[in-house]
């Protein structure tokens, strides 16, 4: 029996040591799965690292862009403030000669006895100033004997129309209105006939 038992153990060992093709395939599959799991873990780690780098780059670009925009906004605000401060300078420089002419006229009123000369001088100054205003884009709003228009006229009062054709029209202009480049800067104050 011991001989038989030894023989059987030897045969068992031989069977265990012999690998069949099916067993080899199973072992190879297990090894492939293990390698795939390892490679998937490594791939995920690589992907996470790559995404982290991309996030860092995007964050850096965003911060730089945000800083550039903030600098641009501050620069444009500063330029606008400077422009606002100095915008009136050109206009005021062009008004100064009119002011000088008024001072000369006042001086000549005190010294002169020629009323016609004073009238002519004042008319010249007015024409000079009106030309300057036209150059700046300011023009007068026509009102007298025109239909009342709430877009450009402000009715101060209504009176009975002196004639039938003046009903709903401007009878008198109390204060002239003005456009600045087709925008109303002051409405005409008018009396409307009814």
Automatic annotation (TrEMBL):
It holds the Pfam family GrpE. Participates actively in the response to hyperosmotic and heat shock by preventing the aggregation of stress-denatured proteins, in association with DnaK and GrpE. It is the nucleotide exchange factor for DnaK and may function as a thermosensor. Unfolded proteins bind initially to DnaJ; upon interaction with the DnaJ-bound protein, DnaK hydrolyzes its bound ATP, resulting in the formation of a stable complex. GrpE releases ADP from DnaK; ATP binding to DnaK triggers the release of the substrate protein, thus completing the reaction cycle. One of its GO terms (cellular component) is cytoplasm. Coiled coil: none annotated. CDD domains: GrpE. This is Protein GrpE. Residues 1-48 are annotated as: Disordered. One of its GO terms (biological process) is protein folding. SUPFAM superfamilies: Coiled-coil domain of nucleotide exchange factor GrpE, Head domain of nucleotide exchange factor GrpE. It comes from Ancylomarina salipaludis. It is found in: Cytoplasm. Homodimer.
């Amino acid at each position: 029996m011991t001989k038989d038992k030894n023989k059987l153990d030897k045969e068992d060992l031989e069977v265990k040591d012999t690998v069949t093709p099916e067993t080899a395939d199973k072992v190879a599959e297990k090894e492939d799965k293990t390698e795939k799991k390892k490679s998937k873990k490594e791939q995920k780690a690589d992907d996470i690292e790559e995404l982290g780098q991309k996030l860092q780059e995007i964050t850096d670009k965003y911060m730089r862009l945000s800083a550039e925009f903030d600098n641009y906004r501050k620069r444009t605000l500063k330029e606008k403030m400077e422009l606002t401060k100095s915008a009136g300078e050109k206009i005021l420089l062009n008004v100064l000669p009119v002011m000088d002419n008024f001072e000369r006229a006042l001086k000549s009123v005190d010294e002169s006895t020629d009323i016609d000369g004073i009238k002519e001088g004042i008319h010249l100054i007015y024409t000079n100033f009106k030309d300057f205003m036209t150059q700046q884009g300011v023009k007068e709003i026509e009102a007298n004997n025109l239909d009342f228009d709430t877009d450009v006229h402000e009715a101060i009062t209504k009176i009975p129309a002196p004639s039938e054709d003046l009903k709903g029209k401007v009878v008198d202009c109390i204060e002239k209105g003005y456009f600045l480049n087709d925008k109303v800067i002051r409405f005409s104050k008018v009396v409307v006939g009814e």
